[in-house]
């Protein structure tokens, strides 16, 4: 029997995510904000990177607002050189956001570049071992490898529960998640 490839698993998980009801998506985004465990992952005084949702991703903006109110300094991914590595820039209320490519926006070059302590990590699929499938470009794996070389970071996968798969084929360069937060709860790996 043929094992599904990352591309197969990604396509199936994204199709399930795309099919979710819009009203459910709103409730799921609010559930994330309510269930993020500040006692397990304290954020006061920490830099937390979030992301602005693209396509059918879960919306983490309510969660990011809760983390900001809990004392986190927020950042978003940025791609100063379209081919270069992903960096993170400070997200400040009221600051202009500029196109980053990939259908998303982020703080412009005037924003401070930050190294996040905690990364809210988007994904296409994940498994019960904390392995994730991204969108195939390796941006988060590379960013986590760079940041982990300075000091180990916390990677929190953010997804709908329908994106879980039985097993993600993983390679040595793939960085496992520390936690995953979905519409059905929080899990530690």
UniProtKB/TrEMBL annotation:
Annotated positions binding substrate: 52, 57
EC class name: ligase
GO biological process, one term: tetrahydrofolate interconversion
Binding site for ATP: 6-10, 132-140
Cofactor dependency: Mg(2+)
Keywords: ATP-binding, Ligase, Magnesium, Metal-binding, Nucleotide-binding
Any one GO molecular function term: metal ion binding
Family: Belongs to the 5-formyltetrahydrofolate cyclo-ligase family.
PANTHER family: 5-FORMYLTETRAHYDROFOLATE CYCLO-LIGASE, ATPASE INHIBITOR/5-FORMYLTETRAHYDROFOLATE CYCLO-LIGASE
Name of the protein in its database record: 5-formyltetrahydrofolate cyclo-ligase
Organism of origin: Phreatobacter cathodiphilus
